[in-house]
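Fold these two proteins, one after the other.
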Amino acid sequence: MNIRRVFAVARRIAEGFRRDERSLGLLFAAPLLVTLLLGWVIRDSSLGDVNLVVAGAPDQLLTALKDAAADSSDKATVSVSTLEDEAAVKRAIRDGDADVGLIVEGSVPTIQIAVVTEGTDPANEAGQFGVVQALLAKSVGALVPVPGFSLPEVRRETVYLSPDANQLDVLAPVFLGIFAYFFVFILTGISFLRERVGGTLERLLATPVTRGEIVLGYSLGFGFFATLQVLVLTLFVFGNLDIPAIGPIPAFTIGLNVQTVGSPAVAFLVAVLLAIGAVNLGIFLSTFARTELQILQFIPIVIVPQILLGGVLWPVERLPDVLRTIGQVLPVTYAVDALREVMLKGADLTSMVVQTDLGVLVGVAVVFVGLAAGTIKREVA
């Protein structure tokens, strides 16, 4: 082995980075940006206000709950209100008018307590459940002087899914959305870059075809394969194909077999619209890249922030104010929201939330078509 030749190759790599100022900058700036966002979110995220609705509680317990909520020093601010019965509590949670429900059954000295949450965000709801448990611990003392009173057991109930739902059930909508978005963006960005580098785009611009027609044509072409990719991913998430043992190969299963309470077709539509937006975003950003490495450099700038701020790992409502505002303009936010509405809550195309999310995704795709067409014009002018 010749050490001089080894160092010569290493120096060539170093010279390449020195000439590529953007790669050199991103080498240090991108990790700092991602770490800053992650640290900011974890450090300053809050549980937010907890709207607690109570049904069936005796007057002593209800008064004690309100006093405990007013004196609470927790990070979350708790408001306590009353409803007439269990059905009203669950309806309020389903409609988004309440975060947690407290249902008291029986009468003093023997009562039973159920804490009801939505059931679609285990991490956030675990925090809310803990807040309510702390309030109960401070409040049940008001009933201790009653003869024969014993501390009630608190059970957990949910409006959607099950209290025992695993993380896969809850994260399946995220898988369907973010993976389609990520891989379609990479596929489109690199493919369109090759069209530019190979001279195909320049030859098209020499024809009567307009720039808008070129972008729409590329969007349709890439969009077709993006749709196929989303279809395969959807079938894998919802499917369950058992393969029997073949010789030395043991039996195995293909697919996650995730159960959805909504229509898989609507979930597929949401994922396709997100993927089409990723197609147009990839076309737009690829005009700023000269190499495939530079396309990959957009991942920590474009994809990772959307994972951190788009409701993928934690609700957008729990983010600090500035980051929450940014999260509310990211396309992934609306896709994840729509997929959760469909797959976890059973919403369909008549749902105003789903309609709004789909409208935003369509608008994002249209905006990036215009931006891509304008960028091509500036690039070749």
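Now the second one:
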Amino acid sequence: MTVGGSTRLVGLIGDPVDHSLSPLMQNAGFAALALDWAYVPLAVRRERLEEAVAGLVALGFAGANVTIPHKTAVVSFCDELDEVAARAGSVNTLVVREDRVLGSSTDGPAVIGLVEAKGARVLVLGAGGGAQAVATSLGDAGAESLTVAARDAERSHALAVRLRTLFPEREISADTDWPPAGQGATLVVNATPIRDECPVAPTAEQQVVDLAYRPDGTDTALVAAARAAGCPVVVDGLDVLLAQGAASFERWTGLEAPLAVMRVALSR
């Protein structure tokens, strides 16, 4: 990849960002379509987030992804939100157009495309921006019930309250135990960074989604346990990364993402 004066830049805003495979995946996609674009990681502390978003505009970036811990805080610094992001209160994709920052969320739709959400009894692990986006999309896709569990009981309760306002007719709860038992759930989503321990013990009838991934491509503890349990649907973090990253790619470029190439880049 050669960066020159005409190269369009896209960033990854988060803290930390050094573990992310998004630059590898996105740059492979740009190269496959012969685009003079480059995707760069940008480590940004919480207190500098507003400046960082303004900097994207000032420096002529085409946009950025947003990752932990900024997905909810960045909402305040967007000029406009699409419907999915506004409903979720979470943003993972920024598009800069005519000096305006447009906020979008591809996390939830990515997961919806990989599982059967309608009628599911969902257990979401985590209460951050990713959990908020995925839980909202699962509710919109027809989940029967939503339970939130997190290490921080106050945050899980706050997310449950938000979900009740969106889905007053659904069964919404916050599990005060950590780790949660997971009994009764038919779909388990890990939206925490936990990779090396299993926050719940999957059972054979559950769909399991892990947003976390290991940079070397090996299974996280949860994914390994789900495969061993014979779960009918097991979605690992690289599956989700590819799906949400492709949607971001298409928002920035207006072109269809080269999924096969991006998938190969992740497998390496």
